[in-house]
Model the fold of this input.
Amino acid sequence: MTTSTVLILPGWQNSGPAHWQSLWQAAHGYERVEQHDWLRPLRGDWIARLEDVLLQQKEPVVLVAHSLGCLLVAAWAAHSRNTHMVQAALLVAPGDAEREDMRPVLASWSPIPLQPLPFKSILVGSRNDPYCSLERAKAFASAWGADFVDAGAQGHLNAESGLGDWPQGQALLRQLQAT
Done:
């Protein structure tokens, strides 16, 4: 297995201490991309922060994104000239910022870029995610050129889903690191 730098990209409101992203960070020393404002996420600010962190890396990275972090990856890739710095991306439970109930809170995140990502990616979706339908998650995977993994009925694939350190997700990450 190839070792890669892993960057954790939480979604809106960050990932709490019991979230698998936080558990992975604590156990493996992965770097979390800290955003300036977790409660009022502005797409341009989040893209700029990701770009800044990537430019500090000495080798290509694997991105591990959850929820709004998945949309961040797509938006960043649509605008950056530095996509070569990403080896792969694990995209988990993308949020749908274009849903009517989310538009007022996440207005700067629409339209969601729907073009192929220039690196290998896997998107994991849940059959009962309250923030993104399975059909919409599959549509994102197709548009982004990501392999789709159906996680079954796991909610938003977060701490409330009871995933713990989520061994299935770690296996997917190892698969991407080996590419």
Remarks:
- The longest strand covers residues 86-92.
